[in-house]
Amino acid sequence: xxxxxxxxxxxxxxxxxxxxxxxxxxxxxxxxxxxxxxxxxxxxxxxxxxxxxxxxxxxxxxxxxxxxxxxxxxxxxxxxxxxxxxxxxxxxxxxxxxxxxxxxxxxxxxxxxxxxxxxxxxxxxxxxxxxxxxxxxxxxxxxxxxxxxxxxxxxxxxxxxxxxxxxxxxxxxxxxxxxxxxxxxxxxxxxxxxxxxxxxxxxxxxxxxxxxxxxxxx
Length: 218
Fold this sequence. Notes:
Layout: H1 2-48, H2 59-131, H3 137-165, E1 172-177, E2 180-185, H4 192-206, E3 213-217
Parallel strand pairs: 2-3
Antiparallel strand pairs: 1-2
Helix pairs in contact: 2-3, 3-4
């Protein structure tokens, strides 16, 4: 009977020991799983927050970078604005120069047209004298000579203007008045050499004395 009792106690003790061991192992496993889960959750949170293996950046450093970027952007804007203002000034200056140049060209064109119109009207008047049967022959002879002189003068003026333009002047205008010639050239200034060249051309082509050649610039 005593042997049976001791045997049963041993069996109960072994079973109890097994239950305690199983409980301990189960507790250890759960604790490990919780630790792993917590670690995984922590890593996930760090990754979502953009931390992970990266180094944390202080708020002061972020503020400094933003300030630097704002300053750089401000400098870029200032350069862009300066360039825009410069381009506007240049464009306005170019436009003003073009307008001035256009006005000067219009002046020379309109003046030549007015001069040629005057010669055409004179030729027309003399031609009517030649066609009028009631006009004496002596007056018709005078009219013929005037027509010849006008045509000669017009051709000489055209040749002189072309020759002067070939010397580097964009626009040239010549008016004849009796035995004198008025020459207008488009130029900011005239050198002594340029004046001499103009005088030589006008005196040779228009048969005008050098002291009667009057040169002005526009």
